[in-house]
Amino acid sequence: MAGRFYLILISFFLFYGIDATFAMRVSSILQFTITDGLSHNSVNVIFQDSRGFLWIGTEDGLNRYDGSGFKIFRHDPERTDGMSGNQVVAIAEDLDGNIWVGTRDRGITVFAH
């Protein structure tokens, strides 16, 4: 009976101890909306690249956050070197630092490093 009590007690401290440790490591949580410069409030994917930029794919474009503001990339039918579409669903980085962006219905765009 005492063994079971100690097992429950240890489990309790392990569970809440890990939770408390996680809470201490998270210093703050930021929330962004279109008011802050985000292109759309519906976010599909978030990715942080090797240079520290936060890439946010939304239903209306790709957003690059540098810690102070956003740069928005959108499809422009007049340009052949820009985004292939606006509904961003996937973001990845290759070994050369290029950013690959997948859109819902218009293919892939690669931003060369």
Proportion in β-strands = 25-35%
Which residue ranges are poorly predicted, with pLDDT under 50 across at least 5 consecutive positions? none
Overall shape: it is globular
The helicity comes to 10-25%
> Helices and strands, in N-to-C order?
HEEEEEEE
The strand count comes to 7
Sheet having the most strands = 4 strands, antiparallel
- At CATH level 3, the topology of one domain is Thrombin, subunit H
Number of helical segments with 4 or more residues: 1
Radius of gyration: 21 Å
Provide tags for this entry.
single chain; 113 residues; alpha+beta; Thrombin, subunit H; four-stranded antiparallel sheet; three-stranded antiparallel sheet; 7 strands; 31% strand
Written description of the protein model:
The protein is α+β, with helices and mostly antiparallel strands. It has a domain at 34-111: Thrombin, subunit H. It contains one helix and seven strands. The chain has one helix at residues 2-25, and strands at 43-48, 54-58, 61-65, 70-73, 88-93, 99-103, 108-111. A hairpin with a 4-residue loop joins strand 6 and strand 7. The N and C termini lie far apart (63 Å).
